[in-house]
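Sample intake sheet
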Amino acid sequence: MRHLLSINDIDKDFAITILDTAHEMARVSEGAVKKLPTLRGKTVVNLFAEDSTRTRISFEAAAKRLSADVINFTAKGSSISKGESLKDTAQTLQALGADAVVIRHPASGAAHQLARGKWISGTVINAGDGTHEHPSQALLDAFTIRKHLRGGKGDLSGVEVAIVGDILHSRVARSNVLLLTKLGAKVTLVAPPTLIPPQAQAWPVTISYDFNSVLPHMDAIIMLRIQQERMSDLYFPSEREYSSLFGIDTERLALTKPHSILMHPGPMNRGLEISAEAADSPQSVVVEQVANGVSIRMAILYLFIAGSQESSNE
């Protein structure tokens, strides 16, 4: 049984297979009949112990378009909020006959613990664990970049991508660095020194503290949300200063290549890391990222549930 816990779980060829499959899923979603019978009779559980809108709804829509039965299991109002352990929750899901569990959890490593604890027999898909990883977000970001800059084909060799903002607390940044470099892209991290994790010095990336100097060279710019809920210390003097140095607005967009795209995993702090004008500009593909998320998650569910069963039966 295969799990998607980290981008390290997939190699370059399989990453491209996921992107190619998502391309086909997008064509289905654009057609008159949006549902496929692929996962009919299967049960997908969305186990969200942390608030989410886009990711949870996206996985739910993806599962339903593949004809799976979906159970949404959120922290609020559930046994999780009453202190139930992850193991006890997992055993409940096993009793319900879950074929796959999509888990978001505030603890880094929770998805790995669920999969490797062998508490459930189904596939485990990491939808974000603490500040660790968010592999499906990285895949949808790569899908979006490839669609706009590579015609939806091949890898991302030679594409220059800037990841800007709260790198320190961002699971999206970690997964994106792993995947984009795996696909051949050149990645530059842009942030104040306080928001660059110490281990980033060993990552296959360039680190810059000067946003304006980086912008003219980038093909894609991924802005990250300032995660104030994870900040126990003061990482920058003020929101105004952060925005003036590391926020994207129309003046900074004017420094970019005409074909470059502006991205954000959401939710956006408009007026902090991104201005309203930039978020709604022609270069912004933020809304499209949400739609692409459904196609990517359809591909993930198909390949990791139906695909893993087909390979085990060979």
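Comment: The longest strand covers residues 123-129. The longest helix spans residues 286-313.
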